[in-house]
Amino acid sequence: MNAQTRTEMRELSYAEAIREAMDIALASDDRVILMGEDIGVYGGAFQVTGDLVEKYGTDRVMDTPISELGGAGVAVGAALTGLKPIFEFQFSDFAALAMEQIVNQAAKVRYMLGGSVSVPLVMRFPAGSGTGAAAQHSQSIEAWLGHVPGLKVVQPSTPEDVKGMLLAALEDPDPVMIFEHKILYKMKGHVPEGHYTTPIGKAAIRRAGKDLTIVATSLMVHKALAAAETLGPEGIDVEVIDLRTIRPMDRETVLASVRKTGRLICVYEGVKTLGVGAEISAMVAESDAFDFLDAPIVRLGGAECPIPYNPELEKAVVPQVPDILDAARNLAEGRI
Amino acid sequence: MPIEVIMPKVDMDMAKGKIVTWHVSEGDTVTKGEPLFDIETDKAAMEVEAADSGILHHAVPEGTDVPIGKPVAWLYAEGEEVGDPPAGLAPAEPDAPAVKDDPAPRADAPRPGATRREPDAGEKQRATPRARALARDGGVDIDAIAGTGPRGRVQAGDVAALLDRGPAQLGAATFRAETGPLSVTRSKGGTGTPVVMIHGFASDATSWAPLEAHLKHRPVIRIDLPGHGKSPKLKVASFAALLQEVRRTFDDLNLDQAHLIGHSLGGALALGIADTRARGIASLTLIAPAGLGPDIDGAALSGICRASRAESLGPWLRRLVADEDIITDSYVRLAMAGRSDPNLRAAQSAMADTLFPDGVQAVDLRAALDRLTPPARIIWGKRDAIIPWRHALRAPGRVALHLFDGIGHMPQIECAEEVGVLLRSQI
């Protein structure tokens, strides 16, 4: 096995891929700093920062007090004054505490000052359900931030993408919000070595198919792929699109797929109503791809309730593989 | 339960229709799709097909005006007991004025020939956007397609299946039928007995121009066939129905005498008119007429109907003439421009399928030719590739034959001068 092949085969977990991206950034750019609660000695709520504090010291890997609003405010200020902070939330749910800084400051200040400043801020949000952490620690709130002009909102679904998108976010002059599904942290996958970027605003076709399109985000991409593997032998050839970025959304990839298949299922973990799937559906309905639809659009999203603590209920309120199978079969077989 | 047969709404403004003729008698069996009755409205007349099969009972008398949506008869199943007319049957009032207490026509009035459906009858056809787009591109009327999706929704596959079945079935099944009188155009000037011209299949009134140049001394009146030129795309159920329509148009011209000229299918129609309106016909000219034998080039007919581009139309047009050079590319493009409406092509496909099923002339007018009394002539090109000129030899001795060597199916264009001079001397 030569060195080249070894590089291609190298696997990291999603969390390791993030850490490697931050390590590369810290090493190559003095302006990059990490901020967040318990990211130093403790290594982060999900052990993503790990031992980076030992390598780069507390000036650059900075524990912030237990105030998301305060920490986020410092991060926005640091970004405005020349640094490139990567701010970690312990849970994406706590973004609610920092909304003033994210929505009213980070997203708007470039506009309000006539483009004379920008906020090169990266925020990382451990997101999603499946960990038994209940209503206040399990939400998928990406659509909240996706609604704010001035922000970029990404949901990488693979180790390779999360590293590349974090490095791309650091090159972006404006705030980029990275939603990392907690279930993905332990997922392993191929990750190229060294510095590379994965474009923000570009979806990925994870599986090509001709019968129906599933546009999924984050963990749901993997559920959609699992469903597609089951459906293939049944004669239902599914195309799975990993949206990757919800703002700005990759319109062309989605529309081209719908033009091809004529059937669309949107799968996302956030609450179904007014969510990412609503935007995807509307985008298709407003476009020329409308003419190619051969069945109603189906959205599979989170239930209209807080995430329950009971593990069975927790599973029941977000889309699962059987839900996707049902929807795909109903669509492909002309029942809806 | 007997099935209600209702007065269909065949045009937008229609409030009622008159039952003109029943094609099926009381107590007789009718099969779905067969002609059941003829109706007449203020604007149009048309044949209504049975939407279901059954035994006809309680039919309102011919001549009765019936508001749309009201029953005109009931279809019973075999062995089903026939009692009193079910409630709701329109009163028998032959030629009565509009029924006074009749409500305004419902917006959701059913389509022609439909039996009464649930109140959603007036809803737009359920169809997916993709099916609609396919139908639009293929020149198919989405409303005429039976959907296989949920709640009868037409899906892309339904349209694709129809398109796959080929143009004849396609047209027969799916053009968007219209109503209204046929288009009649008149030349300026000319005196004496007018000349009435009936063009051939897939042509229109403008095709007469080369011949007309020689007939300027007479008023010229041209009739566009249904689904051709400026005429509405009527549903044509049979040659007899087509003849009835054209004859009505001819009658409406209200001419004491007319020289009648028909080409190809128009020739068959002219012969049909002359057969029943002999006293009004000063002379009859049949140019390469249909109706005198079974043979016809069905491939050319369907090829012309099917062609959606100049490239596919050209080869078929060239088959119409002996000297292909007269069909120039610009002529083909012009002809295609006149055929750009997919609904027109679909209507003509449907007509071809009715009149020339499987590429055979279904109508036989040889008996009409034999009993013809007005002065008549047949003009034919001896290199006609569409209808064999030898059909002309069927003509009785009193019919003049003018057979042109080296001329195809279009003598009135290919040798307009000679045909024109010939006609001028006699018309």
Structural class estimated from helices and strands of chain A: alpha/beta
CATH topology of the largest domain in chain A: Rossmann fold
Total strands of chain B: the figure is 15
Helix content range of chain A = 25-40%
E-strand count of chain A: 14
Whole-angstrom Rg of chain A? 20 Å
Put simply, the count of helices of chain B is: 13
Note the run of SSEs of chain B as H and E.
EEEEEEEEHHHEEHEHEHEHHHHHEEHH
Question: Hey, which two chains have the biggest interface?
Answer: A-B, 10 and 12 residues
How many domains, in number, for the residues of chain A?
A: 2
Overall form of chain A: globular
CATH architecture field of the largest domain in chain A: 3-Layer(aba) Sandwich
Largest sheet of chain B: 7 strands, mixed
- Computed structural class of chain B: alpha/beta
Instruction: Tell me the domain tally of chain B.
Output: 3
Count, helices of chain A: 13
Per CATH, the class of the largest domain in chain A reads Alpha Beta
Shape of chain B: globular
Cofactor (chain A): thiamine diphosphate
Keywords (chain A): Oxidoreductase, Pyruvate, Thiamine pyrophosphate
Protein name (chain A): Pyruvate dehydrogenase E1 component beta subunit
InterPro entries (chain A): THDP-binding, Transketo_C/PFOR_II, Transketolase-like_Pyr-bd, Transketolase_C
